[in-house]
Amino acid sequence: MPRLTLIVPAYNVQGYIRECIDSVLQQDFTDFEIVAVDDCSPDGSGEIMDEFARRDTRVRVLHLAENVGLGRARNAGIEQATGDYLLFLDSDDTLAPGSLSAIARRLDTTDDPDVLIFDYTRTYWDGRRLPNQRADLLTETGPAVFSLADRPELLDLLQIVWNKAYRRDFITRHGFQFPPGYYEDAPWTYSTLIAADRLAVLDRTCVFYRQRREGGNILRTVSRKHFDVFDQYDRVFAYLDKHPELDHWRTAVFRKMADHYLTIMEKPGRLPRNARSEFFQRASAEYRRRLPDGFVRPPGGRGYKYALLGMGSYPALAAATRARRLRNRSSLRSRERVVRAKRAAMGMFYQSQLRMGLDDNLAVFSAYWSRGYSCNPAAIDAELARLAPHIRRVWAVRADQVNRVPKGVEVAVVGSRSYWTAVARAKYLVNNVNFANAVVKREGQIHLQTHHGTPLKTMGLDQMNFPASTSMDFEDLLKRCDRWDYSLSANRFSTTVWERVYPCRYTSLETGYPRNDVLINSTAADVARVRRELGLKDGSSVFLYMPTHREYQKDFTPRLDLPRLADELGEDVTLLVRGHYFYKPNGRMAELQTSGRIIDVSAHQSVEDLYLASDALITDYSSAMFDYANLDRPIVIFADDWDTYKVVRGTYFDLMAEPPGAVATSQAQLTEILGSGEWRSEKSAAFRSEFRERYCDYDDGHAAERVVRKVFLGEESLLPVVPLAERKPAPSPAQALESVERV
Fold it and tell me: What's the CA gap between 221 and 267, in Å, rounded?
């Protein structure tokens, strides 16, 4: 008997069913079965499901002799189910990675509730993802298990069947069945929720709810079938009539019924025009028939619509609906006019500031498209404060990222008056990417481009040869690069790349990367401190996993089975996992942290601290390898998709032939490298030594000082570079522990 049964009905979904079932079979939780129901689909959906069944015994296909509709197809699936819990997945939707393991854990920790409710996210054809607007109702604060009476606001969630797991014996004991027709979820969801003694919630997106561009959803279908909603609420109230002990839910269900009727009437694209008045009159009659004694209408406009429904005044409701739509359109146009006016006014303000004199003692900093305080600009900022405290330092930061800036740092929110004032009048502009196109480079301004990594992957004009990796306007790119006065370089290799792919009139500064100074200058006490702050045990082996961005992967999903890797490596190993900054946070990484030996450090402010805390780096094609090499600690390359990556993005050298350490192309290989000690073998050290000779030219701990003295203080010559053989990187965690213990 499996823990979970997923029931997947299918009808005319051959374009989606494969992705749907794949999203289940690729879950890291395996104790499940899929009952795929072919609702006599005229397309190839049934054959595709049969293919899955032939390959995987967890898939069983039920072919119905006639088309019975979604509700009855689900009923057929329930009859075949053997799992402890029933989940319903629509055949054009998908499960988020890690969902089943999260659901199973929550069921275990809440001692098998009758119903578990989880979250979902709407996904669109253009890549947009919109979270559930009522996700706040799924907070896991308070008792883990409760009744609906304890949290009646859960009725305000979209009443759908596929965001819940139902204990099968609870369903069979009560004899719940799906009715035929549109809105079949309403009788099922209301009846199961009010009947359940024990509910639980999981505050995690488990289902990606596809919003099909071409329709395929009853909510976008103009049809008289929307009249089915009356039969569905008849069934809900019939259930209440049979269970007088649940009568106290009558008022709440009545309110949901009235809201549902009004929604159908007000939403365009549902009712045929010649059926709207008829629908309203039927809804009005149902309203009056079901009106509970002492019912109090909600306040405001919603209550006014309830009153019109009760009076049966369709013309008044139609007029109110038209007036609301006109107000909404007018309001939208007004907001658009206000936005345009504000932009125009801000543009005029910026132009006025451009006519003001430059402030020779003002520097504006930005990093990673104004995402916060980090990287080379942050290291230069700190050194500037030490060597030239008379220069005022202002950071351009997006409004939603201000909380990532350390206290005491002056901020100008991007787009604000203070921002446009600063970029117009600052003598110095410092960035590790480019400022926006609207920023004008004034005569006398000094623009310092710091970059943010040594390039393995193609950059700048070289990306023209790999169109699948970018939609960049290269003319605009070069106009932005024309503003540069200085371009920093960490090594000779980077200098040659930058000067070729950004062919503009700047001066290359071979200073090393200021952000890497800390990797040379940190002490044993610094290493011990960052380990302590991250909660890492003394003596444990800590591997920092830092994969890079892939143009063909929209979300950060680790390419490794991290829980399995942690289990196979043993209790004395901790994995720090840092996703690329291009990727938005997702619930998957939060789930992986429950063991305590997998720590998501994607949002950690300082990647340099993570370098110091780790015993080795695991990466693929990230520029992190070039920075980490300055520590002279082991680096392991996990390159399971090298052949794809080098074709899609293009690379400047063959990483498989010139690696900084041991290379794995599968998880099994990686486990063997880490478990056997090959990651720190003499052979791996030899690879690293050659790599350091090629790419660690200038990072000697004095890069920030070189930059400040040259750019801000006007010194002609750069400080000499300490030879690689004479540098002493920060001590390893083992060396730091030994040093601290001696003290």
Answer: 11
Contact in structure between 90 and 99 (CB atoms under 8 Å): no
Question: Biggest alpha carbon distance in the chain?
Answer: 91
Closest CA to 674 of 570, 520, 521: 570
Alpha-carbon gap, residue 616 to 636, rounded angstroms: 8
H or E segment at 9?
strand 4-10
Q: Quick check: 435 and 365 in contact, CB under 8 A?
A: no
At which residue do the structure tokens 């990417």 appear?
433
Rounded to 10 degrees, the C-alpha dihedral 105/106/110/116 comes to -140
Q: Which two tokens stand for residue 641?
A: 């998709």
- HSE-up of residue 535 (Cα within 13 Å, Cβ side): 10
Cα of first residue to Cα of last residue in the chain, in angstroms, is 59
The confidence band for 152, taking pLDDT boundaries of 50, 70 and 90, is very high
User: In DSSP terms, which residues pair with 330 in a beta bridge?
Assistant: none
- Asked whether residue 335 carries a pLDDT value surpassing 90, the answer given is no
User: Please, is 78 exposed, middle or buried when counting C-beta atoms within 10 Å of its C-beta (0-12, 13-18, 19+)?
Assistant: buried
Give the three-state DSSP class for 621.
coil
Tokens of 137: 């109702």
- Give the closest residue to 707 by CA, choosing from 483, 396, 377: 377
Confidence band of 656 (pLDDT split at 50, 70, 90): very high
Residues paired with 579 in a beta bridge = none
* Angstrom distance (rounded) from CA 708 to CA 512: 12
Residue 486 belongs to what H/E stretch? strand 486-489
Structure tokens at 384: 């500037």
Cα dihedral 325→328→330→331 (10° resolution): 170
Alpha helices in 214-275 (DSSP H): 228-242, 250-266
User: Measuring CA to CA, which residue among 58, 91, 63, 87 is closest to residue 76?
Assistant: 63
What is the value of pTM for the model shown?
0.59
Sign of CA dihedral 576, 582, 585, 588: negative
Q: What is the pLDDT of residue 587?
A: 44
Per-residue pLDDT tens digits for 34-89: 999 999 999 989 999 999 999 999 999 999 999 999 999 999 999 999 999 999 99
The pLDDT assigned to 469 comes to 60
Buried b / exposed e over 416-445, threshold 16 CB at 10 Å, is eeebbbbbbbbbbbbbbbbbeeebebbeeb
